[in-house]
């Protein structure tokens, strides 16, 4: 299996090189040269496999030339060593809870897999690697925890000042060791643009071995397909799946589309967004128009130029008619989010976070057909947004211990302006 650049299909590299390079030099994204179909025997017997075993079946076609089978299984057992339950919320709507990992966000899956792959490659080559990652909230802490003390790897996290929750900030600025946080005086799109510019800076790359830990990296993106298979394994046989994905950079949704292309029977996807409705608008008009990001209660989805959009196009060979037939869009306001969090808690006691709330709302507004059930991705623990949640519910929600222990730790971050030159100089220094 080779991986080509979405800007040039003749630019092809191995899985290892795609992971280590992070981003092609032509500013595209790496994408598999073919999408493997999984056997009907596997797909019809998902319930008989463990989560790491499902991971091995899904990931092997992409990694087998560069990671031995036993090493891959070891990586997956370390990556997927926490529960991912499917929890009923309404009669025909369920939450896939992706927040039971170390940082209590869905990005633990991709970040931990990437960290272990990159650590394996770096140690084997005895080569120092610097990981650059931009975050709108959860990515930074997931990547930081995933790479903490990994040999031969340094991590630099760029995050927008004042635009992540206080608890998210503490999670990504209190790790130390080989993890450094840069507080950028701008928004997430500014952080992401600075990271991308670094990858295109040939002078910098001659001095440093850079790679990415955002979902632009194939080893962050591909393993997200695994939990769609795990969700299907937990659903009653014969049910048809409608999956709603709260989306910002659209790596999570695109991973789900990839799972469907590999053979997982999913009827339909919903791209659920906040006020940053770039993709819902695209699905209506066929025109992709990036815009400055808008600050909302669901801050991890405040993205005005979704970086995984080229991969979404590749899944369907850039055919808008096919894309539109498989995905519908939905967009909701902060008021919508607040109201549904309050209503669901009062009616069922289930606590939606501001991102999962958008996924749930999209299903509430979807017209289900016969034998169809809805699954929305609960992407982060509500406690990570405790200030927002406390304001909406008008009471103090309780925090899990692993979040509580970070609150009183001292923030360690380096402040930089939105200037690539300042970022470049800091990296060189």
Automatic annotation (TrEMBL):
Modified residue annotations for N6-(pyridoxal phosphate)lysine: 107
SUPFAM superfamilies: Tryptophan synthase beta subunit-like PLP-dependent enzymes
Cofactor(s) essential for the protein: pyridoxal 5'-phosphate
N-terminal signal peptide: none
Record-annotated Tryptophan synthase beta chain-like PALP domain positions: 96-364
Keyword Secreted found: no
A GO molecular-function annotation: threonine synthase activity
Catalytic activity field: O-phospho-L-homoserine + H2O = L-threonine + phosphate
Keyword entries, A-Z: Amino-acid biosynthesis, Lyase, Pyridoxal phosphate, Threonine biosynthesis
InterPro entries, A to Z: Ser/Thr_deHydtase_PyrdxlP-BS, Thr_synth_N, Thr_synth_N_sf, Thr_synthase-like, Threonine_Synthase, TrpB-like_PALP, TrpB-like_PALP_sf
Family in the record: Belongs to the threonine synthase family.
Protein name (database record): Threonine synthase
Organism, scientific name: Fulvivirga sedimenti
